[in-house]
TrEMBL record:
Belongs to the CbiM family. The lineage of its organism: Bacteria, Bacillati, Bacillota, Bacilli, Bacillales. It comes from Lysinibacillus sphaericus. Its main location: membrane. This is Cobalt transport protein CbiM. Keywords: Cell membrane, Cobalamin biosynthesis, Cobalt, Cobalt transport, Ion transport, Membrane, Signal, Transmembrane, Transmembrane helix, Transport.
């Protein structure tokens, strides 16, 4: 058990306990029509099952990575629990899924993100149980998939490790909100203009605050990843996050 892990854990915990106004962005309990709530649950469950298998395989092969797995969950919990009011009258928040995605892949993050959302709905009234499937699909499934594709793509075109992490976290965050806007537009199409008019309205509500939030999340994720890169190199090599050359 490394001292560096506990230092970072205490920092995240202290960050979470700082008093802040209570807003909510996850689709709240009872907001979606029941047919859509069920639909998103059905779509999400296969990814969660595959994610459980992915986590089990990783832990069996590299049991020393359990601490970093827990850190990934704590990071996502803290960031996605920060509700920041928007100038539009609604609110936005980071997602925190980029870190765990880069470390463990998108399937593992589908489980971690769903657990985070479950605890937030139970402990913070942030989101809901009936809407957990929809929230998990946007933040714990599609967001990580986008982040992982961006991270691997950035590495292939020769971007530095830090830039790859930054763009992965930032675009994974933005992708989550695009999907949430799609979910809301599908459930509540506008009487005039249908789905597209509704999507434009929902996406526009969060755009002004979500873009700077996504950039901030990208920067914070790079900072935490560089911390792990400095003090937990062996675990990151075991997870094949980077090569031995990139570690220096």
């Amino acid at each position: 058990m490394k001292l560096s892990f506990w230092k970072l854990s205490y920092f995240l915990l202290a960050f979470l306990l700082v008093p802040k106004r209570a807003f909510a962005m996850h689709i709240m309990e009872g907001f979606l029509p029941i047919e859509w709530a069920i639909f998103w649950w059905i779509i999400s469950i296969p990814f969660i099952i595959l994610g459980l298998r992915s986590i089990r395989k990783t832990i069996d092969e590299n049991p020393e990575t359990k601490m970093i797995l827990g850190l990934s969950g704590a990071f996502a919990f803290v960031l996605s629990a920060l509700k920041i009011p928007s100038v539009t009258g609604s609110c936005s928040h980071p997602t925190g899924v980029g870190l765990g995605t880069v470390l463990f892949g998108p399937l593992a993050m589908s489980v971690i993100g769903t657990i985070v959302l479950l605890f937030q709905s139970l402990l913070l009234a942030h989101g809901g149980i009936t809407t957990l499937g929809a929230n998990a699909f946007s933040m714990a499934i599609v967001g990580p998939m986008i982040a992982y594709a961006v991270f691997k793509g950035a590495q292939k075109i020769g971007l530095s490790f830090s830039l790859a992490v930054f763009f992965a976290a930032m675009l994974g965050d933005l992708g989550t909100y695009v999907v949430t806007s799609v979910q809301l537009a599908l459930a509540f199409p506008s009487e005039v203009g249908g789905f597209m008019a509704s999507f434009t309205k929902f996406a526009g509500i969060f755009a002004l605050t979500q873009i700077p939030l996504a950039i901030s999340e990208g920067i914070l994720t790079v900072i935490v990843m560089n911390f792990l890169k400095k003090y937990n190199v062996s675990e990151l090599k075991a997870l094949r996050v980077f090569s031995a050359k990139e570690a220096h």
